Amino acid sequence: MKTKPESHRPNYWEVFLTFARNSLVRDMTFRTNFVLQCISSIGWTLMNVGFYLIIFQYTQTIGADSGWDRDKFFLFIATTWFINSLVQAFFMPNAEEFSELIRTGGLDFALLKPIDTQFLVSFRRIDWSALSNFLAGFVIAIVALHSLANRPVDPMTPTVLSLLLYIVFIGCGVAIMYSLMICLSATSIWLGRNQTLYNFWFYITNFSRYPMEIYNHGWGKPLYGFFTFVVPVLLVVNVPARLLAKPISPQTWDERLLVCWAVVATFLSVRVSRWVFKRALLSYRSASS
Asked: Is 246 exposed, middle or buried (0-12, 13-18, 19+ CB in 10 A)?
Protein backbone atom coordinates (compact mmCIF):
# COMPACT_ATOMS: atom_id res chain seq x y z
CA MET A 1 0.00 0.00 0.00
CA LYS A 2 1.33 3.41 -0.93
CA THR A 3 1.77 5.97 1.79
CA LYS A 4 1.19 9.66 1.28
CA PRO A 5 4.38 11.62 0.90
CA GLU A 6 5.19 13.76 3.89
CA SER A 7 4.77 17.46 3.32
CA HIS A 8 8.05 19.28 3.36
CA ARG A 9 8.13 21.93 6.09
CA PRO A 10 10.89 24.53 5.81
CA ASN A 11 13.53 24.73 8.52
CA TYR A 12 13.13 28.33 9.63
CA TRP A 13 16.49 28.42 11.37
CA GLU A 14 18.28 27.34 8.21
CA VAL A 15 16.33 29.89 6.18
CA PHE A 16 17.30 32.62 8.64
CA LEU A 17 20.97 31.62 8.47
CA THR A 18 20.77 31.75 4.66
CA PHE A 19 19.32 35.27 4.83
CA ALA A 20 22.03 36.29 7.30
CA ARG A 21 24.82 34.87 5.13
CA ASN A 22 23.50 36.47 1.96
CA SER A 23 23.15 39.84 3.68
CA LEU A 24 26.69 39.62 5.01
CA VAL A 25 28.04 38.78 1.54
CA ARG A 26 26.14 41.75 0.12
CA ASP A 27 27.51 44.09 2.79
CA MET A 28 31.06 42.83 2.32
CA THR A 29 30.79 43.46 -1.41
CA PHE A 30 30.81 47.17 -0.58
CA ARG A 31 33.26 47.18 2.32
CA THR A 32 33.93 50.91 2.29
CA ASN A 33 30.24 51.68 2.60
CA PHE A 34 29.93 49.10 5.39
CA VAL A 35 32.84 50.64 7.33
CA LEU A 36 31.47 54.16 6.88
CA GLN A 37 28.07 53.07 8.16
CA CYS A 38 29.70 51.51 11.23
CA ILE A 39 31.74 54.64 11.86
CA SER A 40 28.64 56.80 11.47
CA SER A 41 26.69 54.68 13.97
CA ILE A 42 29.50 54.68 16.53
CA GLY A 43 29.97 58.43 16.04
CA TRP A 44 26.29 58.97 16.83
CA THR A 45 26.73 56.86 19.97
CA LEU A 46 29.74 58.89 21.10
CA MET A 47 27.84 62.15 20.60
CA ASN A 48 25.02 60.84 22.78
CA VAL A 49 27.46 59.73 25.47
CA GLY A 50 29.10 63.15 25.41
CA PHE A 51 25.71 64.85 25.64
CA TYR A 52 24.74 62.92 28.78
CA LEU A 53 28.16 63.43 30.34
CA ILE A 54 27.56 67.15 30.00
CA ILE A 55 24.11 66.80 31.61
CA PHE A 56 25.53 64.94 34.61
CA GLN A 57 27.90 67.81 35.26
CA TYR A 58 24.83 69.75 36.43
CA THR A 59 22.71 67.07 38.09
CA GLN A 60 23.17 63.88 40.09
CA THR A 61 20.17 61.98 38.72
CA ILE A 62 17.80 61.98 35.76
CA GLY A 63 14.58 62.97 37.50
CA ALA A 64 14.27 63.95 41.14
CA ASP A 65 14.57 60.96 43.49
CA SER A 66 14.36 58.56 40.56
CA GLY A 67 17.53 56.66 41.46
CA TRP A 68 18.96 56.99 37.95
CA ASP A 69 22.39 58.40 38.73
CA ARG A 70 25.14 58.62 36.11
CA ASP A 71 26.39 55.01 36.18
CA LYS A 72 22.90 53.51 36.32
CA PHE A 73 21.63 55.80 33.58
CA PHE A 74 24.50 54.78 31.29
CA LEU A 75 23.46 51.19 31.90
CA PHE A 76 20.00 52.32 30.80
CA ILE A 77 21.55 53.88 27.67
CA ALA A 78 23.44 50.64 26.94
CA THR A 79 20.15 48.72 27.18
CA THR A 80 18.62 51.16 24.69
CA TRP A 81 21.50 50.54 22.30
CA PHE A 82 21.18 46.76 22.63
CA ILE A 83 17.49 46.75 21.74
CA ASN A 84 17.60 49.44 19.05
CA SER A 85 20.59 47.89 17.28
CA LEU A 86 18.88 44.48 17.10
CA VAL A 87 15.67 46.03 15.79
CA GLN A 88 17.51 48.19 13.25
CA ALA A 89 19.67 45.29 12.09
CA PHE A 90 17.02 42.60 11.67
CA PHE A 91 13.70 44.38 11.13
CA MET A 92 14.05 48.00 10.06
CA PRO A 93 15.47 47.31 6.55
CA ASN A 94 12.62 44.90 5.81
CA ALA A 95 9.96 47.21 7.21
CA GLU A 96 11.21 50.09 5.08
CA GLU A 97 11.07 47.91 1.93
CA PHE A 98 7.65 46.38 2.61
CA SER A 99 5.74 49.17 0.85
CA GLU A 100 8.06 48.75 -2.13
CA LEU A 101 7.20 45.05 -2.26
CA ILE A 102 3.54 46.00 -2.45
CA ARG A 103 4.07 48.65 -5.12
CA THR A 104 6.25 46.50 -7.39
CA GLY A 105 4.38 43.23 -6.88
CA GLY A 106 7.21 41.56 -4.98
CA LEU A 107 4.73 40.60 -2.28
CA ASP A 108 3.02 38.34 -4.85
CA PHE A 109 6.12 36.16 -5.00
CA ALA A 110 6.48 36.20 -1.21
CA LEU A 111 2.93 34.89 -0.83
CA LEU A 112 3.69 32.02 -3.22
CA LYS A 113 6.70 30.81 -1.22
CA PRO A 114 6.19 27.66 0.90
CA ILE A 115 7.07 29.58 4.05
CA ASP A 116 5.30 31.91 6.44
CA THR A 117 4.93 35.29 4.71
CA GLN A 118 5.48 37.35 7.85
CA PHE A 119 8.70 35.49 8.57
CA LEU A 120 9.89 35.98 5.01
CA VAL A 121 9.25 39.72 4.83
CA SER A 122 10.64 40.25 8.35
CA PHE A 123 14.02 38.54 8.03
CA ARG A 124 14.96 38.44 4.35
CA ARG A 125 17.50 41.27 4.73
CA ILE A 126 19.85 42.04 7.63
CA ASP A 127 21.80 45.26 8.11
CA TRP A 128 25.00 44.03 9.74
CA SER A 129 26.42 47.54 10.16
CA ALA A 130 23.65 48.37 12.65
CA LEU A 131 25.14 45.82 15.06
CA SER A 132 28.07 48.18 15.60
CA ASN A 133 25.81 49.98 18.08
CA PHE A 134 25.34 46.67 19.90
CA LEU A 135 29.10 46.49 20.44
CA ALA A 136 29.14 50.13 21.54
CA GLY A 137 26.36 49.37 24.02
CA PHE A 138 28.32 46.40 25.33
CA VAL A 139 31.33 48.62 26.04
CA ILE A 140 29.13 51.21 27.77
CA ALA A 141 27.48 48.49 29.88
CA ILE A 142 30.83 47.02 30.97
CA VAL A 143 32.16 50.44 31.99
CA ALA A 144 28.93 51.28 33.85
CA LEU A 145 28.87 47.93 35.69
CA HIS A 146 32.54 48.31 36.61
CA SER A 147 31.85 51.77 38.04
CA LEU A 148 28.84 50.49 39.98
CA ALA A 149 30.83 47.59 41.44
CA ASN A 150 33.75 49.80 42.53
CA ARG A 151 31.95 52.88 43.83
CA PRO A 152 32.94 53.69 47.43
CA VAL A 153 29.34 54.06 48.63
CA ASP A 154 26.72 51.35 48.06
CA PRO A 155 28.60 49.24 45.48
CA MET A 156 26.45 47.01 43.33
CA THR A 157 27.29 43.77 41.55
CA PRO A 158 24.57 42.06 39.49
CA THR A 159 23.66 38.48 40.33
CA VAL A 160 23.50 35.65 37.83
CA LEU A 161 19.71 35.68 38.09
CA SER A 162 19.51 39.40 37.33
CA LEU A 163 21.76 38.93 34.30
CA LEU A 164 19.58 36.10 33.01
CA LEU A 165 16.40 38.11 33.55
CA TYR A 166 18.07 41.06 31.85
CA ILE A 167 18.71 38.98 28.72
CA VAL A 168 15.16 37.60 28.77
CA PHE A 169 13.60 41.06 28.98
CA ILE A 170 15.94 42.39 26.31
CA GLY A 171 14.26 39.77 24.13
CA CYS A 172 10.83 40.97 25.32
CA GLY A 173 11.76 44.54 24.42
CA VAL A 174 12.85 43.49 20.94
CA ALA A 175 9.60 41.56 20.49
CA ILE A 176 7.48 44.59 21.49
CA MET A 177 9.42 46.87 19.13
CA TYR A 178 9.11 44.34 16.31
CA SER A 179 5.38 44.01 16.89
CA LEU A 180 4.92 47.76 16.65
CA MET A 181 7.03 47.89 13.50
CA ILE A 182 5.19 45.07 11.71
CA CYS A 183 1.86 46.75 12.51
CA LEU A 184 3.09 50.01 11.01
CA SER A 185 4.42 48.13 7.97
CA ALA A 186 1.14 46.30 7.45
CA THR A 187 -0.67 49.62 7.04
CA SER A 188 1.12 49.94 3.70
CA ILE A 189 -1.32 47.40 2.26
CA TRP A 190 -4.26 49.67 3.09
CA LEU A 191 -2.51 52.97 2.37
CA GLY A 192 -0.70 51.83 -0.77
CA ARG A 193 2.54 53.53 0.18
CA ASN A 194 3.60 54.42 3.72
CA GLN A 195 6.51 56.82 3.38
CA THR A 196 6.14 58.21 6.91
CA LEU A 197 6.89 54.86 8.59
CA TYR A 198 10.36 55.77 9.79
CA ASN A 199 9.31 59.20 11.09
CA PHE A 200 6.30 57.83 12.94
CA TRP A 201 8.44 55.01 14.31
CA PHE A 202 10.96 57.54 15.65
CA TYR A 203 8.25 59.67 17.27
CA ILE A 204 6.72 56.70 19.09
CA THR A 205 9.93 54.97 20.19
CA ASN A 206 11.49 58.24 21.34
CA PHE A 207 9.47 57.84 24.56
CA SER A 208 11.23 54.55 25.36
CA ARG A 209 14.67 56.18 25.51
CA TYR A 210 14.19 57.74 28.94
CA PRO A 211 13.33 56.42 32.42
CA MET A 212 9.60 56.09 32.88
CA GLU A 213 9.74 57.95 36.21
CA ILE A 214 10.12 61.28 34.41
CA TYR A 215 6.66 60.85 32.84
CA ASN A 216 4.81 59.87 36.01
CA HIS A 217 4.25 63.44 37.18
CA GLY A 218 1.83 66.21 36.28
CA TRP A 219 1.13 66.52 32.56
CA GLY A 220 3.26 63.49 31.83
CA LYS A 221 0.87 61.03 33.50
CA PRO A 222 -1.36 60.57 30.40
CA LEU A 223 1.77 59.75 28.39
CA TYR A 224 2.92 57.40 31.16
CA GLY A 225 -0.37 55.52 31.10
CA PHE A 226 -0.70 55.38 27.31
CA PHE A 227 2.87 54.27 26.58
CA THR A 228 2.85 51.72 29.42
CA PHE A 229 -0.54 50.04 28.99
CA VAL A 230 -1.76 50.81 25.46
CA VAL A 231 1.39 51.07 23.32
CA PRO A 232 3.85 49.62 25.87
CA VAL A 233 7.07 51.18 24.56
CA LEU A 234 8.02 52.43 28.04
CA LEU A 235 8.45 48.81 29.12
CA VAL A 236 10.96 48.05 26.37
CA VAL A 237 14.06 49.52 28.00
CA ASN A 238 12.87 50.36 31.50
CA VAL A 239 12.10 46.84 32.69
CA PRO A 240 15.42 45.14 31.76
CA ALA A 241 17.43 48.20 32.84
CA ARG A 242 15.67 48.28 36.23
CA LEU A 243 16.29 44.58 36.77
CA LEU A 244 20.02 45.09 36.28
CA ALA A 245 20.63 48.58 37.65
CA LYS A 246 17.99 48.51 40.41
CA PRO A 247 17.56 52.28 40.71
CA ILE A 248 14.76 51.55 43.17
CA SER A 249 14.84 48.42 45.30
CA PRO A 250 12.48 45.98 43.48
CA GLN A 251 10.42 45.04 46.52
CA THR A 252 7.15 46.90 46.01
CA TRP A 253 4.11 45.31 44.42
CA ASP A 254 4.06 48.00 41.75
CA GLU A 255 7.48 46.98 40.50
CA ARG A 256 6.63 43.28 40.54
CA LEU A 257 3.42 43.99 38.64
CA LEU A 258 5.41 46.03 36.14
CA VAL A 259 7.65 43.05 35.41
CA CYS A 260 4.62 40.76 35.06
CA TRP A 261 2.89 43.27 32.80
CA ALA A 262 6.01 43.36 30.58
CA VAL A 263 5.61 39.61 29.98
CA VAL A 264 1.87 39.94 29.28
CA ALA A 265 2.42 42.99 27.07
CA THR A 266 5.02 41.10 25.03
CA PHE A 267 2.62 38.22 24.42
CA LEU A 268 -0.26 40.55 23.54
CA SER A 269 1.93 42.68 21.26
CA VAL A 270 3.09 39.67 19.27
CA ARG A 271 -0.45 38.29 18.98
CA VAL A 272 -1.96 41.64 17.95
CA SER A 273 0.77 42.27 15.37
CA ARG A 274 0.21 38.80 13.93
CA TRP A 275 -3.53 39.48 13.68
CA VAL A 276 -2.99 42.90 12.07
CA PHE A 277 -0.57 41.45 9.52
CA LYS A 278 -2.96 38.64 8.54
CA ARG A 279 -5.89 41.03 8.29
CA ALA A 280 -3.84 43.30 6.07
CA LEU A 281 -2.91 40.41 3.77
CA LEU A 282 -6.61 39.64 3.31
CA SER A 283 -6.99 43.12 1.80
CA TYR A 284 -4.06 42.68 -0.59
CA ARG A 285 -5.13 42.40 -4.23
CA SER A 286 -1.69 42.03 -5.88
CA ALA A 287 0.05 44.58 -8.06
CA SER A 288 -1.62 43.32 -11.25
CA SER A 289 -5.20 43.65 -10.06
From this structure: middle
